Amino acid sequence: MEIIHISAECYPVAKAGGLGDVVGALPKYQQKLGHIAKVVMPMYRTKFLEQNEWEVDGTGSAYLGDWNFQYTIIREKTNKLGFNLYLVDIHGLLDREKIYGYDDDPQRFIAFQIAVLDWLKQWHHLPDIIHCHDYHAGFVPFMLKYCIGYRSLSNIRSVITIHNAQYQGWLGWDKSHFIPEWDPWKSGMLDWNDTINPLASAIKCADKITTVSWSYLEELRYSANGLENLFEYEKGKSVGILNGIDADVWDPATDSYITNRFSVAGVTRGKAANKKVLCKEYGLDSKLPLVVFIGRLVGEKAADILADSILAALYALQGNMCFLVLGSGDPHVEWQLTTITDRFADRYNVVIGYNEQLSHQMYAGADFLLMPSRVEPCGLNQMYAMRYGTVPVVRSTGGLRDTVIDMGDEGGYGIRFNHASVDDVRYSLERAAEVYADKKKMSAMRKTMMQVDNSWDRSAQQYMEVYESLL
Ligand code: ADP
Ligand code: GLC
């Protein structure tokens, strides 16, 4: 089978969060299963672009509204990622430093999708499946079915994976001229509440919808940033498939980002050595339990209650815990997290920014990983933490609920709580401090969680079954 993934992110080319990790891994595992998987993404100005060799695979021109733009599709020459990687270069529009955050993002991603389909039209054969990821690729299912210029592609089946339904890419109808000419009877397939909504359009038009965990699929029917009824209506073609983790990238026994590598048998010693290095670097007391938070500092992740929760736990535990936070996002949250550094100098530190290497060192060196997320479609951090023997402390939601078993339950290795509130987090951290004192239990939990199979092997197979059901 030949599958084309269309995405705004793909690790290690460009990553803002878990979407990048998934698109960097799933195609590799599909290739391993004997299929042809290709990833097409915008050509941003990244290090990966500079450091690798490329060849031109296609060129063409298309219209975005009145603007006739030229595009070039380049392919990475060496198959470095384990699948064919294509970048779409649209000069002046996509070749920028950041992935998102520009005023013209809607135009950028529409032009990207137009260029991809225009290029596919030039192929001598049709791929079997176009797999779209999030709203950045959300117009594709509509374009395949209803845009006049893409009729030759209309037999290709499409799948939309919802990594995060909070972001929908809304667009006023005044911008409808950016979308290539379509069958006017089908305008409703673009619309949700009098707005053009690419995510809603993909949900309506794709042949199959997948969400990145089972619980998230359930939750979307009552909490989907306005799309609840649509998810309820389309439940017949929806399926939850839990993300996996890339076992080549996230393996404490081989990870080149960490100083002390370890496997299951040597977990206690290995983690202690990594913790020492980390605590020294960030001025923390390595004898105390170390709790880390890694992620986007936004409301979905409940980052706004982080500073207060950390303070509450430090008071409740009389300072017998250490914290290290890594993230960036909401400036007010960044400020909150920065100002509290003075209050508990050797107990708390924060790094504002994005740092892939430090994140690996934190998964390896921490005792606990905190995720109080309000919304967590899947969450990869908790699975990385588990692979590195770090106890996940998570709110019971979405993929966190599907992947973490509370230590009070049979076979459990984590700590779960119900509310994204200071009280629930503080109470859970008190539980963490208690179990930390029980060396035997800690060691047993670490060993259990490190052996949980969260690799992509299983989920990649489930995606193949979804595709097969469409052919
Ligand atoms: P989301 O995609 O919603 O941000 P996920 O848990 O799916 O959440 O994935 C987050 C990914 O981004 C993980 O690989 C995590 O390690 C990484 N990450 C998030 N913030 C940072 C940061 N500041 N520095 C390094 N890595 C980060
Ligand atoms: C989104 C979600 C996150 C998920 C990731 C990868 O960014 O917020 O929970 O793990 O996509 O699917």
How would you describe this structure to a colleague?
With 471 residues, this protein is α/β, with parallel strands linked by helices. The chain folds into two domains: 2-244 and 456-470, Glycogen Phosphorylase B (Rossmann fold, 3-Layer(aba) Sandwich); 267-450, Glycogen Phosphorylase B (Rossmann fold). 35% of the residues lie in helices and 20% in strands. A nine-stranded mixed beta sheet has the order 3-4-5-2-1-6-7-10-11, with helices on both faces. Helix 4 (140-146) links the parallel strand 6 (129-133) and strand 7. Helix 1 crosses helix 16, helix 4 (140-146) packs across helix 5 and helix 9 packs across helix 14 (422-436). The longest helix has 17 residues, at 105-121. The chain is globular, with a radius of gyration of 23 Å. The model has no long low-confidence stretch (mean pLDDT 97). The structure holds adenosine-5'-diphosphate and alpha-D-glucopyranose (GLC). Alpha-D-glucopyranose binds at residues 17-19, 22, 163-164, 212, 243, 376-380, 399. Residues 17-19, 22, 163-164, 212, 243, 376-380, 399 line the site of alpha-D-glucopyranose.
How do the helices and strands line up, and which of them pair or pack?
Layout: E1 2-6, H1 18-32, E2 36-42, H2 47-51, E3 54-64, E4 67-76, E5 84-89, H3 105-121, E6 129-133, H4 140-146, E7 157-162, E8 191-192, E9 195-196, H5 198-205, E10 208-211, H6 214-220, H7 228-233, E11 238-240, H8 267-282, E12 290-297, H9 306-316, E13 322-329, H10 331-339, E14 348-352, H11 356-365, E15 368-371, H12 381-387, E16 391-395, H13 398-403, E17 415-417, H14 422-436, H15 439-450, H16 456-468
Parallel strand pairs: 1-2, 1-6, 2-5, 6-7, 7-10, 10-11, 12-13, 12-15, 13-14, 15-16, 16-17
Antiparallel strand pairs: 3-4, 4-5, 8-9
This protein binds adenosine-5'-diphosphate and alpha-D-glucopyranose (GLC).
